[in-house]
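Q: Joint fold for the lines below.
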Amino acid sequence: MVTSFFNEMYASDGLRAPYQMLEGWYQNMPAEFRALKQAEAEDLFRRYGITFAVYGEGGDPDRLIPFDMFPRVFTAHEWRRLERGIKQRARALNAFLSDVYDRGEIIRAGLIPADLVYRNDAYEIAVAGFRPPLGVFSHIVGIDLVRTGAEQFYVLEDNCRTPSGVSYMLENREVMMRMFPHLFQENRVAPVDGYARLLKRTLASVAPAKCDRDPCVVLLTPGHFNSAYYEHSFLADLMGIELVEGQDLFVEGDFCWMRTTEGPRKVDVIYRRIDDAFLDPLCFRPDSALGVPGLMNVYRSGGVTICSAPGAGVADDKAIYTYVPEMVRFYLGETPILDNVPTWQCAKSDDLKYVLENIGELVVKEVHGSGGYGMLVGPASDRATIDTFAAKVAANPSNYIAQPTLALSTCPTFVEEGIAPRHVDLRPYCLVGRDVELVPGALTRVALTDGSLVVNSSQGGGVKDTWVIAEE
Amino acid sequence: MLSRTAANLFWMTRFLERSETTARLLDMGFRNALLPNTGGGYRNEWGAILQSKGVLQPFTDKYGEIVQRNVESFLFFDMENPSSVASCIRSARENARIVRTALTSQVWDAINASYQELMAMQRLERSKLSTPDLTDWTIRTSSLIRGAIESTQLRIDGYSFMNLGYAVERADNTARLLDVKYYVLLPSVAYVGSGLDNYQWTTLLRALSAHRAYNWAYGGELSSVQIAHFLLLNPKFPRSLLSCYAEANEHLDQLARIYGRSTPAQESARALLGELAEARIDDVFDEGLHEFLTRMINENGGLAQSIHDQYLTGEAR
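A: Joint structure:
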């Protein structure tokens, strides 16, 4: 059982260096002032329209994600190592994708079972044999990390499709700078606002070879009913590109066009925030009204680039996850900098046996689940829940993986009575195009309930501003 | 600009203008209901008001008998009534939300705040809200949003689409309001020139915020011919048909300049403006006011359609 947690501010050997200047800040903050600032923050978020609808919950479509004003801080030294590890992983995942849609060397070498890749639901036969510009499949790689000690980070999962949440990274900073400018005057907090420019540059760098001018980049959204619509419009605005829906695009000849008030205009790069299945009703789900009929043909003939590539999801599958350190060694010839969490594949009979015997101490997840749904946190669940879940696992083992319950680090967080440690995770957004880029910042999600280890916003998690202190 | 963006801007302002018109009609009904009826009690013209909005049937389906209080709720708050003030403001906000990035933060703030206020009002007890308060609020809100658009939006194509929405919707509404008064409200021709007739005209002018302006322009005497002239052909009155088409023309010309090509939409607006600029009020009455207004409403619909075909589908080449 987990008993002690690494506290990122107050470790066993006292106040840690990156947080030194924050101690006086919160200790000298009167309660009324804090309440005032909290209200101001909420007001700012609501004014900017930064809201988040939760799927299947009904209720207020203009719900705010709770924002905690206590920042999370990394030193430049800590960040450097993370940055190298994240970029390394993003490169390896892309190498894996271009391999499995090509000759499948890693499978021939016997390092990953063929079934796991080719029979994976996320493997997209429509792109097999196709090489996207620069060989990049996943242009925005979100890597979820947790920390368990001063030097120990684990990758919880990878997101190679369309990781969301980056707008919170940017807006949390915006709000903090507006509310507590002196904190930024006194500390050398590395800026994150270059993200949009880097993203635009990344997207433009993968324009098709057929594009012979300044590429026209668009962001494809499922529409304003989507829970992340705010983020879509926010990013499009920052990049100065059009925010389009499927109905705004059409295919004619060898190209994809958008409907404008001046007639059709050719589109070169589509940053899509809709799932593979909805991209093209002629190729995937015929009932999809969100996509563009014929888009995949244009894509495969090099008329347009889709970011991330359809089929990129095969690399972030929870069953494939186990093999990422193997990919780093195989494709890059490097030692993995970031560790995986030890994982039991319930599909393997030995592993299944272990999982069922120790289920009360493990975290069990669905292979294809996301957003904190369909998972069991053993130590936090009662007997009946555990038994029900164990039965589900036994009935369909290949649908589950299990991991030890990690001692997630905590970060001071404002609560009713003052501050208290709450568990946090970290999601950086790595950009892959001509270059591999990472801004010095990330989204920190925090489990606001005492003792909870689930940080997902759909399950009552909040967010924090994340600082990287620049070097002198 | 994306055609869908243009369409959202166009419809956003149409909905805003429509919410204002519903509020003005509500005001007109409220004032009319204060007028004693010749046969005892008070006059009840709510049926005519509902009819002019094309919502008489849905209203009676929902509430049965026409009771003032219900009509007021129906016209102001009812989200099931697509032309209620609340529905229009919600739709306008939805349009605005979709094209947030094409709006200045002042405009978005004004629209969003009006929606939030509306939601707050909806939670209040109905008895705490008088009808004049509701209509005043709507008209004030509408001015606030239009003011924000005027003073902060860049003068680019999006701005023209917003103004086209206002102009087209306003022309339609002015024509309909006049038609209600002339064709629907008055029980029979025998009443023309009666006290009732005059009272209704005054009410109509008040509802269009044009009561004093009319007195200034025409010396205070009420006559149906002069009022029709004022509302249709007077270039000084900002809600007159002529003013609306002058506005529509200006913005279609502006778009043609920005995009470097003239369009069929421009031609139909120019034809409408030409006709109204040349027309004398006698011509209108010779044609028959109701017939003239019906034709105008149809041609206005045609203009909206040609704007749609030219700019809002993205297919015109």
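Q: Anything notable?
A: Residues 10-208+304-341+406-469 of chain A form one domain. The radius of gyration of chain A is 23 Å.
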